[in-house]
């Protein structure tokens, strides 16, 4: 199966039965835990990570059936295989055990080879089921990624390209007859569309490289303040158009250990979002602080904010969340997902604090030194 050493919980109110089963299974290399009654068993399961439970049926107060029923109702213990221990005279009652979720039964007194074989078989099945569930979750994630790509290609990229095509066609057909003021507006719109397309493609290509494992992780020591000062000019025109005030109080002496290209992508997305959702006359602030071995960078804005029920959707590939910017800007929602992935690759965390209608704060951490 794998190199993991499995833990077996033996539950029986007869100490001799526990000792006998433990001796047999100890020879097979398993970790052994035990409980003398049902109440102790339910308590034990919360404190240890059991891979399989050998459960006696006839016990005082809380019998094996009641224990099994409670374990199967709890999502954290529902997948632990339970093998009932039963006397010859109780074989018929095992049917009820199967109905409650038991996977097998063993008749006492134990046969060494039978006990070892049945335990080994059900541990193998449990391990196979876990791998199957992992594969299922992986497939769900792959499908969500595929759907996201198709959404971006089918809708988010098509719209700005349509604007570019129609705008350039108008210039081609009517350039000499268009008034200068109208021409200036049209060129400005074409510039916005081409800028949006480029930003979408950058994120799409970065995400594709990340998912395919082709993106390299090359950490170095660098100054976040200096990096921020290279990102802000990318949005100079949008910042001027909206008369947004930029405040940067990041410590110029602060250094972090991370991949500078990845963090540049993170800052570009966070700064772009802040500009997009901040109205005319608003402000965007970059701050820093030190939290032990980590540096904390905050990008805050006085924008439209995010509804509390939507915050968790922003970092998930399997949900569709999109908001129109204060000047009609559109996005794919891919940028923040990329931010989370890149920050995670660099050993940090990212979170959002927001008040709808008042603004948002995006806070991420990076190690100051090599971890």
Structure write-up:
The protein has 371 residues and is α/β, with parallel strands linked by helices. It has three domains: 7-133, Response regulator (Rossmann fold); 157-215, no CATH class; 216-371, Heat Shock Protein 90 (2-Layer Sandwich), CATH 3.30.565.10. Helices cover 48% and strands 19% of the residues. It is built from eleven helices and twelve strands. The protein has helices at residues 15-26, 38-47, 64-73, 94-100, 112-156, 158-174, 180-212, 224-231, 236-241, 260-277, 334-345, and strands spanning 7-11, 31-35, 52-56, 82-87, 104-108, 219-222, 245-248, 256-259, 283-291, 294-301, 350-355, 359-367. The strands form three sheets. A five-stranded parallel β-sheet has the order 2-1-3-4-5, sandwiched between helices. Strands 7-9-10-12-11 form a five-stranded mixed β-sheet. A two-stranded antiparallel sheet has the order 6-8. Strand 9 and strand 10 (294-301) form a beta hairpin. The protein is elongated, with a radius of gyration of 30 Å. The two termini are 32 Å apart. The mean pLDDT is 84.
